[in-house]
From TrEMBL:
This is TetR/AcrR family transcriptional regulator. PROSITE patterns: HTH_TETR_2 (PS50977). Residues 43-62 bind DNA. Keywords: DNA-binding, Transcription, Transcription regulation. The keyword Nuclease does not apply. InterPro entries: Homeodomain-like_sf (IPR009057), HTH_TetR (IPR001647), Tet_transcr_reg_TetR-rel_C_sf (IPR036271), TetR_C (IPR011075). It comes from the Bacteria. It comes from Gloeobacter morelensis MG652769. Pfam families: TetR_C_13, TetR_N. The keyword Transcription applies. Residues 1-20 are annotated as: Disordered. Residues 20-80 form the HTH tetR-type domain.
Amino acid sequence: MATDRANAPSPRKRATARGEKTRAAILHTAAQLASVEGLENLSIGRLATELGRSKSGLFAHFGSLTELQLAIIEQARAIFSAEVLERLSPESRGLAALEQLCDAWLGYIEREVFAGGCFFMAISTEFDSRPGPVREKLALFMGYWLGNLERRIREAQELGELPADIEPAQLAFEIHALGMGANWALQLFDDPKALQRARLAIRERLAQLAGGPIDL
């Protein structure tokens, strides 16, 4: 009994754990709303109404709208990482890893993990011409995502799977643009074939460069 009491978490730790769980639940709902309505339209009042909570209660977790926006982006980043980046096989390298990465990314869009499609595509168009901490955080993550594509392309070049004269940034740009177009068509036209078209276009581009058929 004494040992159990000694190992039990303190009231402060329990309160902290509850606070973190509540914050995560708030951010999950906020990210879903923001993907549909926009990050700028998601005020603390709007979020409080959606959650059935008081504005003052939300202010206890987020002191300002900017802090809320940055926290939402961080939550979306964690979801994206789990749904896309962490789905790669640890042993995969080069072209195989690039194929898996593209497939996981398009699958994340197709499954509509966020109600409004890809969170980062939706929010990037909202803030791409608006300087400030939100735009900076978005640009940092999108740069990280493009960097992942470029790294896999360079690995494929080092393994002799892709020609050495390909510019990784250019190919990464092309792949990303195809995904953006598919997300746009899926959201605007509710086009169920949009992701198929993107997969086909990426597969054909990689096959052309590699000199053989590639299945994504």
